[in-house]
């Protein structure tokens, strides 16, 4: 075998193992160990295990278990229901009211759970049965639930914002701030789709008339403690009171106090399930990050990013065409590989390429995240698609028919943020 083929053999091995249903963590570890034990025998394998250990010594990683636990506590404490009530007051008077509520709730849940799959599972249990009772088809209810959950990781403190910041060495604080406008655009585009479909199918509103300013104010007061969380977290990070990791710890304390003493829904026995969900969620996410860092060691050793950069720059040096190529790569990859895994594999390869062409890595981060969110609701391996359909018992075929207009809406937003970087960079530049 030629040296060139052997240098990329671990990348091929990752995909082969993944399509054999091996978890992505073990795909990355196995491929890296194969390279250093079999191909490059001149390098001490001890260096690989040292990289494994040092990858865990990142203070920013603490934000992940903290925010996962805070989101879990908030679900048990009734904060999610308070957010749903507030969303209903805002949009329940519109045709297709529950569809709009579904989208707005995902927008609000972005500041609570930060996880698309957690949001999709929660709304599948909470909202979809209610939508079906009100005359919405199960397929449409499932499609809007999965599609709207794609907004959740884009709104801070989305877990994917943290992961990309760590992988690409971009400020997590700036990633948080940059996520707001793209998230709002995604939600707005899906509400337009809901309005069109609701008018066509005559889906009725949940409220007889638009809520008055007084009614909105009363509900905002009732939901005050739930609404305060996302804005309070970002404000405290911005003014320098806490780091993103410390903000996660504050979020746990805040949600626990609100759950026990204000909403009085949280019970000590709930913490058994909360700790289980936190350990499971943290283990899967952090292991992927560590595995990606170890795999990145092999990529750097073989100078794969530099070789890919040279190859693609041989095709074009126009950054707009290059962004289009990156979008196509990410969209296709997202159809076959789970979003988080796709990001940790591609970010180390593509970020050096686009930054060399003058693309801000902060801007590119939101492009990557929106791309992989599209992959989460598309066949054959969309994680939110399977999460929702597994709970609602909707067939994949019916789901695909209903989710297509929502995918189109997100793609329009993706094109906008790809070629109008000011949409992403406006708030970070404004706040400094």
TrEMBL record:
Keywords: Cell inner membrane, Cell membrane, Membrane, Transmembrane, Transmembrane helix
Family matches, as NCBIfam families: dctM
Domain TRAP C4-dicarboxylate transport system permease DctM subunit: 11-423
Gene Ontology, cellular component aspect: plasma membrane
Top-rank taxon: Bacteria
Protein's membrane topology: Multi-pass membrane protein
Pfam families assigned: DctM
GO MF entries: transmembrane transporter activity
Predominant location category: membrane
Localization of this protein: Cell inner membrane
InterPro entries tied to this protein: DctM (IPR010656), TRAP_DctM (IPR004681)
Name the record gives this protein: TRAP transporter, DctM subunit
Ranges that cross the membrane: 12-38, 59-79, 99-118, 139-167, 179-199, 220-241, 247-266, 278-300, 320-350, 362-386, 406-427
């Amino acid at each position: 075998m030629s040296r060139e083929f052997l240098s990329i053999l671990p990348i091929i091995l990752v995909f082969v193992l993944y399509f054999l249903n091996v978890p992505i963590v073990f795909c990355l570890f196995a491929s890296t160990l194969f390279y250093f034990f079999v191909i490059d025998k001149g390098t001490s394998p001890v260096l690989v295990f040292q990289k494994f250990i040092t990858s865990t010594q990142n203070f920013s990683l603490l934000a992940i278990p903290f925010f996962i636990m805070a989101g879990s506590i908030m679900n048990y404490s009734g904060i999610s229901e308070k957010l749903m009530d507030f969303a209903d007051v805002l949009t329940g008077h519109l045709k297709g009211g529950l569809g709009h509520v579904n989208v707005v709730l995902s927008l609000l849940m972005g500041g609570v759970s930060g996880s698309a799959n957690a949001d999709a599972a929660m709304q599948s249990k909470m909202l979809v049965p209610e939508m079906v009772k009100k005359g919405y088809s199960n397929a449409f209810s499932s499609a809007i639930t999965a599609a709207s959950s794609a907004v959740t990781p884009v709104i801070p403190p989305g877990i994917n914002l943290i992961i990309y910041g760590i992988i690409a060495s971009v400020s997590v604080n700036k990633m948080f701030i940059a996520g707001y406008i793209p998230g709002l655009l995604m939600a707005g585009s899906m509400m337009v789709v809901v309005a069109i479909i609701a008018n066509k199918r005559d889906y009725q509103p949940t409220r007889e008339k638009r809520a008055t300013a007084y009614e909105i104010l009363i509900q905002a007061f009732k939901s005050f403690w739930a609404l305060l969380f996302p804005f309070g977290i970002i404000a405290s990070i911005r003014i320098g009171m806490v780091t993103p990791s410390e903000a996660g710890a504050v979020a746990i304390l805040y949600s626990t106090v609100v759950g026990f003493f204000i909403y009085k829904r949280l019970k000590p026995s709930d913490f058994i399930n909360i700790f289980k969900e936190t350990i499971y969620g943290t283990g899967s996410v952090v292991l992927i990050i560590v595995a990606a860092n170890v795999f990145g060691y092999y990529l750097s050793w073989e100078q794969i990013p530099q070789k890919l950069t040279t190859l693609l720059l041989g095709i074009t040096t126009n950054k707009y065409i290059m962004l289009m190529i990156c979008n196509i790569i990410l969209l296709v990859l997202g159809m076959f590989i789970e979003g988080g895994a796709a990001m940790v594999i591609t970010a180390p390869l593509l970020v050096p390429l686009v930054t060399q062409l003058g693309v801000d890595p902060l801007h590119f981060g939101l492009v990557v995240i929106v791309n992989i969110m599209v992959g989460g609701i598309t066949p054959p391996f969309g994680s939110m698609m399977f999460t929702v359909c597994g709970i609602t018992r909707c067939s994949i075929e019916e789901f695909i028919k209903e989710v297509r207009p929502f995918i189109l809406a997100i793609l329009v937003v993706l094109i906008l943020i790809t070629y109008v970087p000011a949409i992403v960079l406006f708030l970070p530049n404004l706040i400094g």
